[in-house]
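Quick question, first post here. What does this chain look like in 3D?
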Amino acid sequence: MTTPHPPVPPAGSPQNDPAPTSGAGTPTGAGSGRSGYLYRKVALHLADHPDQILKVGEITRAIGAPSSGAVFEVLKKMAAAGHATHHRAPHRFQITQAGIDAAGALPPAAPRTRSSGSAGGRQSRPAPVPRPNGTLYHPRRLGKGWDVEELRRLRTQQVPVLLYGPPGTGKTAMVEAAFPDLLTVAGTGDTVVDDFLGSYNPVPGGGYEFVHGPLVTAMRGGRVLLVDDATLIPPRVLAVLYPAMDGRGTVTIPAHGNETVQAVDGFYIVAGHNPGVHGAVLTEALASRFTVHLHVTTDWDLARQLGVPRPVVAAAIDLNADLAAGKTVWAPQLRELLGFVKVRDQLGMSAALANLAGIAPEDARDDVTAALSRHTGTPITALALGKR
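> Answer (accepted):
Ran it through. Tokens below.
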């Protein structure tokens, strides 16, 4: 988000030096054979540091450019195109998602890598992955690679994964991005065996026909089944999954003449679990069926990259620390923070802050309001209609 613009420093100050010009008064590099090269280097450097707000001098030194003025001109062009946000006093820039997408289409000026933090050295950041609803999922680190790639690799090795973490951290989004052939069962306390295996449904003209459920469809089609909120499902119902997950790879459908279904290659089960949600029970029988238990938390750097203001992210981080310590009962996750951005873009910052406080459960609302007020310096009350 672009910060409010304070008075611009006078010409000649370090923050507002004009770009060096050639004899014709054109910024150095502009119109020359190197202008596109410099633009690529600047854009790719910003794309490799999406969570950072960088000063012009920092960028100039990092890419080895001879002129900070020329870099500044490039950055202003990026900001005008919506590819970067321009923060002032001093001049600093951060790439936007549009800028990341545009940089991905540029021919590389140098190898585009980011530190992986693994023994393997440095790896390129993968492009965002489309989800079925058209939104983009931004892959995150997992082991020596990226979560989407690693989930696909675990599928080929038939290593089942249980994802756990607070609601709204991106568990379902990650699975949807990894597996385009996904089927989902949304678990509740009312989920029954028929929701997995199928049931008889009425047909026009009278009578009934048996419609196979998502578990059977996934087994026969070699597809992935996500059991979302699995720990809300009664354990006796979840037991229908176990023979499909072990070496047998089969299920029997008592309601359809004890029909036996055999899984084909590619069939895979992933489950999601929200610890602490009322009614959630992670039984030993369920936990033992999943070889990998993956904790999914909110990616704060991604939240900033996607436009969530830093003070709001800081408030969310504090609230999540309080949640972990048992000092509050709710904290906003990535889902709520992205909703904040949408509300801000439509109704303004004050309304977005008020709405973020208002969506908190009543017994956590004071905690959320206090944290947001402390970090933003803005008095906040829950969003409500005003007088006519």
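Confidence is low (pLDDT under 50) at residues 1-33, 108-122.
Residues 21 and 28 are 5 Å apart (CA to CA).
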